[in-house]
Amino acid sequence: MSTDPLVVFTPSGKRGRFPVGTPVLTAARQLGVDLDSVCGGRGICSKCQVTPSYGEFSKHGVTVREGALSEWNKVEARYDEKRGLKPGRRLGCQATVQGDVVIDVPPESQVHRQVVRKAATARTIVMDPATRLYFIEVDEPDMHEPTGDLERVARALREQWEIEAVTADLSLMAKLQPTLRKGKWQVTVALYKGHKDTTPRIVEIWPGLHESGLFGLAIDLGSTTIAAHLTNLDTGEVIASSGLMNPQIRFGEDLMSRVSYAMMNPGGDAEMTRAVRDAINDLTRVIADEGGIDPALIVETVFVCNPVMHHLLLGLDPVELGQAPFALATSESLTLPAREMGLDAMNPRAQVYILPCIAGHVGADCAAVALSEEPGKSEDLVLVVDVGTNAEILLGNTTRVLACSSPTGPAFEGAQISSGQRAAPGAIERIEIDPVTKEPRFRVIGAEKWSDEEGFAEEIATTGITGICGSGIIEAVAEMRMAGLLDESGLIGSAEQTGTARCIPEGRTHSYLVHDATADGGPKITVTQGDIRAIQLAKSALYAGARLLMDEMKVDKVDRVVLAGAFGAHISTRHAMVLGMIPDAPLDKVTSAGNAAGTGARIALCNIGARAEIERVVRQITKVETAIEPKFQEHFVAANAIPHKTDPFPELAKVVTLPHVSFNTGGGDEDRGGRRRRRRA
Ligand code: FES
């Protein structure tokens, strides 16, 4: 048996014997331990930090004595002096093995480190990005052995990093010569290797050791909003998040009106493509500024979007998506140079990855939700609902996954609501109505206190009370139903019928007064009959989509429900169920997942394996087309009642008793706008 010292790495548990004098980094590499290095062991990148442990380790069967690693050398001392090493830390490329030792690799030194999401469902992201940094020392040119600079860079990568071959485009070659000379033949290159590529490509080069990191954007391109997360491709950390309204709204609020715009106006599609690309360029600059980085450090971008946005982003005419059979130009995932898409605010050689679409109405955003929430790995039957202008709905378990999208319209995002607004300081986000007095109390974004608590006025002094956001309107409608201000059909009662002067007449219908600041020149915030109808349309579309999937699955109930969406995390699950947005389920089995599509984009950005995975998963998802399914209309009409005309809600009944009220005085049916089939949003 070898008498060489035993080296045990934690947390991996990998172990092996190595001759005295072996650098820890070398031992780690030979054992396949996940220990990072950008400089290749030259003692300048500090990525290889490890923590040796001393003492008795019965678990590993070793005793580690003082002197198990070499003394600090000059390189470590210099690094510690300049940058500081945490107590107990060593540079793995400098410290050598002298005796049996247990060495811990801290998370920040692992290449494939795990990033724990903050959201409720704590899915971790394992870092494995497509673009990585490599520091190399390149041979100087020699007249007697003529080779090009690029060939010598390739040779250095082969000899120092075992990377067999690389390519570079013309724009990179133009930078190569001055950068090599500026760096005195020491440079850092960023290599991009997609999950389908065999040869990596040099996307950037810096003189010396590049220490400012590499970044990527995960973009959720929605019909109403564009949300971006600027992510460090080394650590997975989101360093800035920013969003803006989709400027295409001026061409049409919902997707179908944008498709119509493209149909009716020659060049309209190109106009919309320009608008969205300009917005993404602006957003890139803003988010880089917020993150305090040079936008040229953004080398990758992942997009998730619905099919119409997908086509408009790519400059493809969306007209085919407006009519059956809803043919996509391509449903495959796409990897493209950002420049080719007119995205020129980021690195000129940045790569874009767009997740695959599932079908003509079920887009890459739904694929991203599937990647994030993994319904196909769930033992119990889970319904995942991504609430947005278009709802993405997935139903499945380990046996089968179904998907559809449903045209909810922008009401859940506060649009088309009389006092509606985006979720911003001053917006009412929570509301409660006393079932006896019918008086409301509410909370606004930016303040901690409820409106009836002392100190509320001070807290809202700067923001004021400006309107109701999406989660607020859902709660308002549900609370009105629970307080007996609203009947099952969605009619608001009069002051006489409800016994509160807050129900005020408005034409032939009534509104509920939430807040009146008109005496001080402020707004009057009401929930009108029109608002109720808009919410009924939206929730009926959502419920009908879910029901259609349940029909297809041949089930009448689901085991659990996940509410996702940009504001999914803010929706009160109880109120969502009172409203009948989602099928009946035990309330403790209804959870919020936050922006699942955005999370899916982040996962695909940070881990190239996830790109291959979602491409495989998407092929196994059964698509259900709501637009041509006659049952959808039937379900839609039945779902118009609050919570539902025919479906029982036994789980809801265990926690909430809804009053039996009816405000229909037998008049006309003209206010029953909710019965109209909604256009696809
Ligand atoms: Fe770069 Fe050790 S590998 S400092």
Mind sketching the topology for me?
Blueprint: E1 6-10, E2 15-17, H1 24-31, E3 49-53, E4 55-57, E5 62-64, H2 74-82, E6 90-91, E7 101-104, E8 114-116, E9 124-126, E10 131-137, H3 149-161, E11 167-168, H4 170-182, E12 186-192, E13 201-207, E14 215-221, E15 225-232, E16 238-245, H5 255-264, H6 268-291, E17 298-305, H7 307-314, E18 334-337, E19 351-354, H8 364-373, E20 382-386, E21 391-396, E22 401-406, E23 427-433, E24 440-444, H9 456-459, E25 467-468, H10 470-482, H11 495-498, E26 503-506, E27 509-516, E28 524-527, H12 529-553, E29 560-564, H13 573-579, E30 590-594, H14 596-606, H15 608-620, E31 622-623, H16 630-638, H17 650-655
Parallel strand pairs: 1-7, 11-13, 14-17, 17-19, 20-29, 22-31, 23-25, 29-30
Antiparallel strand pairs: 1-2, 3-6, 3-7, 4-5, 8-9, 10-12, 12-13, 14-15, 15-16, 18-19, 20-21, 21-22, 23-24, 26-27, 27-28
Helix pairs in contact: 5-6, 8-14, 8-15, 10-13, 12-16, 14-15
The structure holds FE2/S2 (inorganic) cluster.
